Structures are given as C-alpha cells and as structure tokens.
Amino acid sequence: MTSRKVIELFYDVVSPYSYFGFEVMCRYRHVWNIELILRPAFLGGIMQGAGNKPPGLVPNKFLYMTKDMTRLSEYFGVPLEAPANPFEAMFEKGSLSAMRFVTAVKEKEKGGDKQVEQVSRELWRRIWKEDKDITKPESLSEAALKAGLSNSEIKELLELSTSKEIKDKLKGATQEALEHGSFGFPMMVCHVNGKPEMFFGSDRFELMAHCIGEKWLGPQPNLSAAKL
Amino acid sequence: MTSRKVIELFYDVVSPYSYFGFEVMCRYRHVWNIELILRPAFLGGIMQGAGNKPPGLVPNKFLYMTKDMTRLSEYFGVPLEAPANPFEAMFEKGSLSAMRFVTAVKEKEKGGDKQVEQVSRELWRRIWKEDKDITKPESLSEAALKAGLSNSEIKELLELSTSKEIKDKLKGATQEALEHGSFGFPMMVCHVNGKPEMFFGSDRFELMAHCIGEKWLGPQPNLSAAKL
Description:
By secondary structure, the first copy, chain A, is an alpha+beta fold.
C-alpha cells in the first residue's frame, strides 16, 4: 500500500473560484488516494501581501468571469450566483469575521473536519448563492446551525473567533499561503515525496492529477447537493 | 451528418499560453467535428484596448507562471522554455512585425492554412524555445524558410507585411477580438447555433468541449514534434 499524498487546500469563502476548488477537492478525497487538509485563510491578506489586484477590475475580464462562473457552476454541479453587488460583498464587507469563525470551528473540531467543511459550504452558499450577509454574528450563527452545529457550540465559537489566539491562527495560515507563493485562492499544496507542489485556481485539476500520479475523471457527482 | 462547428482561435506568438492553446487546437481539429480558423492578432493592442496589465508584474504570480509553463509544456508535449529576458522579449521587442508577417501569410495562402500554422509554430519556437529574435526581417525569413516557404514567397510576404492593407487587417482582427470581449490570448470563439461563445486561456478545453457537445480526451500526441 502506498502512502496517501497530503493536499492542503487554502481557501476563503469570499472567493467563488475557491468554491469550485473546494467542492471538487471534497469530492476527490473519496476518489484519489489523498489526505485533504482544509486550510481556511484570508484572501484580503493574500492580495495585500502579494501586491495583487482583483481581476474583475478590467471590464472585459469582469464580463468574462461572470460568464465563466455560470458555465463552471453548471459543469461542476456547484450552485452559484453572483451577489447583486459583488464589489460590495467581496471588498467592502469582506470575509474577515467569516474566516475567523471558520478558523475557530477548525480549532475546536476533533477527529475530522466535517464541521469545517459544512460551515464553509454554508457560508459560500450564503454569499455566492443566496446573496446574504456573512459578516454579522447572527449570519455566522445561521450558517453554523444549517451546518448542524448546536446553539451552545455556536455561542462558544463566536466568542472564540474574536480571540487573539484565533486571529493569530488565521494570520498564520495566510502567511503560510504567501510563503508557498500564493497570490490568490484557491491554492492547493500537494506534498509529493516530501516536496511541496503548489497549484493555483480551479482549472489545474487535470494537471495536478498528472503531477501526483492520479487520474482526473472530470467533475464527480455533487453528493452534498443531494440534501438541498 | 451534423454540421461542423466553427472555432476561431485568436492568438499572438508572443504569448506562451497561446502556444499551448494553438497546439492543442491544431491537434483537436483532427479529433472534434470542428472547423478551426486561425486568427493571428496583436496582443499589445488587446492589452491596451482592454486596459489589462501583464500578469507577470506580480512577483508571486510571475514565479508561479514560470513553474506552471514548465509543467504544461511537459503535460501538453509542447516544447517551451522562457527566454533569458522575458520582459525584454515580450514587451520591449514585442511581436508587431511578426504578427503582421503572419497576417500577410494568411492573406496570401489559398486552399487551407498549413503555411499560417507552420509559420506561427516556427515563430513560437524561436521566441519560446530558442530565445531568438522575431522582430527583424531576417528572423521572419528564417522562420518562414523552416516552415517550408520559398525565398521568393518570403520576399513578397515581407514586402506585403509592411503594407497599409496588412497593417489594417491585423488591426481589424485585434479589434474584432476586443469586440468579442478579449482581454488577453489565447481566445477561442466557438460558433454554436449561430451564437458566439468565447473562451479565454489554455485551461478551458474541457469546459469548451462540454459546451460545444464534444469530448475532451486530454492532450493528444504531438505529431508536429515528430519532425523535430
């Protein structure tokens, strides 16, 4: 038996392409011989740290991305709709409190990452499908309730999410992503023979599969959507 | 028999990702039920017209792209090496005379596009494999000779390439690309049921196949490399 390759997925729920990357990787952890590690991080910190600008500022690129996301949503089977005001949602309101909350969920969860996965998914669904807020405590609560967490767990996580410990954890994950060469999300870091191999975006799965010795089989069925 | 779908491929030999897109599309015209139309255009005009900036200006993105191109070169079987000074080659020297020359080849060629294909490939090989000039008349001649054109044909094409007619043709193709929503190359415009569907980059083949009702079978064998 060959040992499982570790793939770290760095993401932020503010990023729609991360949503595709997240769902595809969550499916492929049951297909490939890999251990997937979810790494919530903060895209705002990446853009600032890398000196990158959002691609949507070029008008033709913005129009294309809108179309591209619609096509990919259908192809990957990941329900996604842009919020009415994407600039406000992504850059003015942002995702700092949401990603601190996901970091707190990750910190508290033992024996797996089902809660991190489900809470992340519910937050994406809010911003990238239902055009709902993800900045207020009551918004985070709603997402966590849908993800199956209890009221008492959520209360504790909301408190924890504003602690210095969690703020530093999120900063640390973001810094680690920058050190891997990140300039945006999603970013996958594959550990193959002790060497990290970084892949950016949700359009390198086939290439990534080739590099880690697995096979790309196209988008797999969206099992999580079955419960919708 | 269903009618063949027309796919226009807009490209510039200064663009390495266009090289991948070009080779893959040249292979798939023998695999899919399509008519491929090669559309030489000018990337400099696209970047200016769309208000876009080269992605390599962000340091982490530049490092990643270098790695990404090496991986894709191996995966697609398209021999590619960055020139020693990519910024000089791409932005200072540029591709205006080269793309005017390719436009002249396209204008003169009758009954197919074998010459356009071969001359484009030889120009790519010069800049993106051999780190050679593509701006001087003698450079264009060398590429065209390797592509199988005769000395007298080349002499005529070099003259034609500086004519107002050809300058206007290249401008027209570039303008047409902008009107299709281009902000970079390669750009594929698929005409499906009378509606143009635009795809950008060399990482949307699988999605494009899905949209035009064909099947993506991965990179096909590099038949043109057999003669190298």
